[in-house]
Specification:
About 30% of the residues lie in helices and about 35% in strands. It is α+β, with helices and mostly antiparallel strands.
Length: about 180
């Protein structure tokens, strides 16, 4: 088992807790207190899977990820590969803007305003719109869904729509 450790732009692969502590102590801005050391030790000694973000007393954090790869190059390559197809897959804003015409299955969670007709008081509740959208990119699908909601007379214009890059917009390219 290897561990990927990153603090801002500084990153490395380590084999054990001592190497991780040595790496972190060599960096400017890293302030480790007992709670940080305890969290780091716990992460190394338990079977906890996935990544762990550890916050320091100066309100900064570093990231640690358990991995089975042996080198930084493998780790970076593995991060950019789609496990099913082996093709490189863009991430973040690049994925949203990647032009790929076809059908997108989308789910948009938004806060909807509803006005009580008797009291005229407004309140928010969470609502979700799921749809298959023909679009040129994921961002285009998001734009179409938001436009549909804005033009819908049943949805108050004060309702809050999430950004395309938020966790409240989930999409999957289905195909043409």
């Amino acid at each position: 088992m290897k561990y990927y450790v990153r603090y801002f732009d500084d990153e490395t692969m380590v084999d054990n807790l001592k190497e991780a502590m040595d790496f972190l102590s060599s960096l400017d801005g890293v302030e480790m207190d007992e709670a940080c050391v305890e969290q780091l030790t716990s992460y190394f000694t338990t079977d906890q899977k996935g990544s762990k973000k550890i916050y320091m007393p100066n309100h900064r954090s570093f990231l640690i990820i358990k991995t089975t790869v042996n080198t930084m190059e493998e780790f970076k390559a593995n991060n950019q590969k789609n496990a099913e197809t082996g093709e490189e897959r863009p991430s973040g804003a690049k994925a949203l803007d990647a032009e790929q015409h076809g059908w997108y299955e989308c789910k948009l969670s938004f806060q909807r305003i509803v006005t009580n007709p008797e009291t005229k008081k407004c309140f928010y509740y969470n609502d979700t719109l799921e749809a298959k959208v023909m679009a040129d990119s994921a961002r285009d699908a998001h734009t179409q869904m938001v436009k549909h909601l804005r033009e819908n007379p049943d949805v108050d214009e004060r309702s809050q729509m999430p950004a395309a890059a938020s966790k409240n917009f989930v999409w999957r390219f289905v195909g043409e």
